[in-house]
Amino acid sequence: MSEVKSVPTDYGRSRLTARTRWRAARRGKRDGRAGIGPEHYARQLERGLRMALEDLRSRFVTRNAAHIDRVHAESARIVTEYDHRREDVPAALARFGGWVSQWRTEVTACQQRGLALAACADQELAHYEAAWTRARHRAEVRARRRARREAERRADARGEPRPEPPEPLEPPDPDTAGAVIPAPDGIWTGAPDWMLDEALVRRALHILEQRIGPAAAAAGRGERGTR
């Protein structure tokens, strides 16, 4: 990737654009001819992907700030009612469960988008490495031909038999190029519990689990109430 900033804009939901495929192949061909290893390109992709994921999560949190504020505010109310006043407020608990469920659904969608970006980065690296491998193979074949012609010229000048031709050079497998992009960290692959780790929220979720059962609480299910 020639520019790190291209990662968020040049990727579709789970596939590369034609422009990105073309650019990756061109860069792979150029680097292969120059003898530049694919690790450099992989590091650029990793840096661009990390920036894209950070930007995606930041924009998601900013866009949904009011929603998570409601979850936090309702958590404080649930804890106050159940732990301090010792009152049962099922409507408020159901409303809290509904908001948590919606939040987790939106986080899951954002996580899927992040994993799609990571898949696109892997695809781009694969396109690059395929072109890089072909270019390196051609460069090595040309180098061997030059070396053979030089050896034959020297043998002819000395009146010696020409050396035996070398074995044909098999094209390498692109999968053996060796460059990899580390997988996204746990916030993109783990439970969709972003910003639900504050003490009041954890306590409210525990109360929700006690009242409606672990499975329902894990999904954050509950009907909205009025109290």
Sequence-ordered SSE layout with sheet pairings:
Elements (H helix, E strand, L loop, with lengths): L5 H5 L7 H17 L4 H25 L1 H20 L5 H69 L27 H4 L9 H14 L1 H6 L8
Helix pairs in contact: 2-5, 3-5, 4-5, 4-7
Count of alpha and pi helical runs? 8
Looking at the structure, what is the overall shape?
rod-shaped
Strand content: under 5%
Largest sheet: none
Task: Classify the helix fraction into a percent range.
Answer: over 70%
Description:
The chain has eight helices and no strands. By secondary structure, the chain is mostly helical.
Can you give keywords for this protein?
mainly alpha
Quick recap of the structure?
The chain has 227 residues and is mainly α. It is 70% helix and 0% strand.
